[in-house]
Amino acid sequence: MIDLESMSLDELKKLQKDVAFEIRHFKNREKKKALAEVEEFARARGLNPADLSELVKRRTRKPAKPKYANPQDPTQTWSGRGRRPRWLDEALSKGKSVEDFAI
């Protein structure tokens, strides 16, 4: 165990910096370790590890089409996903409805 009370301020700051670095890089080390295990598993079964990328394809999502537009500035649009834009929040607070802005 480290005796923190006997350390100088400079030693404590260096320790803090070293710990922060290790925390940031911990996940990366774990990912590399897991990937190596998966590749070894594949090789043991006669598979080429490069072929694994075909099995794991990332899902790509198309950008959502705008459903609502700001009448004062038609370039400001919203798809209905995510956080509501400020211009729409302001209009809703004045009694308008979302359907008033439908495209």
The general outline is flat
Describe the main β-sheet briefly.
2 strands, antiparallel
Residue fraction in strands: 5-15%
What structural class is derived from the secondary structure elements? Answer: mainly alpha
Proportion of residues in helical segments: 40-55%
> Averaging pLDDT over every residue, what do you get?
90
Domains (count): 2
Poorly predicted residue ranges: none
Termini separation: 65 Å
The count of strands amounts to: 2
The largest sheet has its strands arranged as: 1-2
Helix/strand order, N-terminal first: HHEEH
Report the total helices: 3
Describe, in plain words, how this protein is organized in 3D.
This protein has 103 residues and is mainly alpha-helical. The chain folds into two domains: 7-55; 68-101. It is 47% helix and 9% strand. It is built from three helices and two strands; from the N terminus they run ααββα. It has helices spanning 9-44, 52-55, 86-93; strands spanning 68-70, 73-78. A two-stranded antiparallel ribbon has the order 1-2. The longest helix is centred in the N-terminal third of the chain and has 36 residues, at 9-44. The chain is flat.
List key phrases describing it.
103 residues, mainly alpha, 2 domains, two-stranded antiparallel ribbon, 9% strand
Summed up, what is this model?
The protein has 103 residues and is mainly alpha-helical. The chain has three helices and two strands.
List the helices and strands and how they pair.
Blueprint: H1 9-44, H2 52-55, E1 68-70, E2 73-78, H3 86-93
Antiparallel strand pairs: 1-2
